[in-house]
Amino acid sequence: MAFDIEAFRSCHMLGKSVPVFCYHAVCEEDGHSPATFASHLDMMLEMGFKTITADHLYEICMGRKPIDDKYVVLTFDDCHISNWINVVPMLEERGMTGVFFAVSDFIGQGKIRSRADIPQMLSMRESFIKALSENDNSQFMNEAELKSLVHDKGMEVYA
Q1: CA 24 – CA 157 distance, rounded (Å)
Q2: HSE-up of residue 42 (Cα within 13 Å, Cβ side)
Q3: 158 and 98 in contact (C-beta within 8 Å)?
């Protein structure tokens, strides 16, 4: 995903709004490097944006919470293992939060993994092929990692 700063600014300047960004894999293998993603996060912070959860956004949409600051929602589709290895530490370092959407059929058992514990990282396309044709879900976050996102990291997870 290319970061269009002018579209980002104009979206917010049209009135009170909450931009929502959707990411997938954040890894060299998928063409969206961690360095590029870090620059997106840093720019959002430099512009004074704060990340909020989907629940917070819902409360705004329902009129139960005001847009009383510059907010942005960061979403991550499919829960590729790069989200656990690359994205979560970057969000934590910056005091930011994310909303993760898991593919329920790909949620396996296992322990919380580190970079040393994962197989060679594959692109999203290759990860889906491996999961669907070989029933190998190792390129996606497992149940322990998803639980940790919520209970230890303060993120939101949906399916």
Answers
A1: 14
A2: 6
A3: no
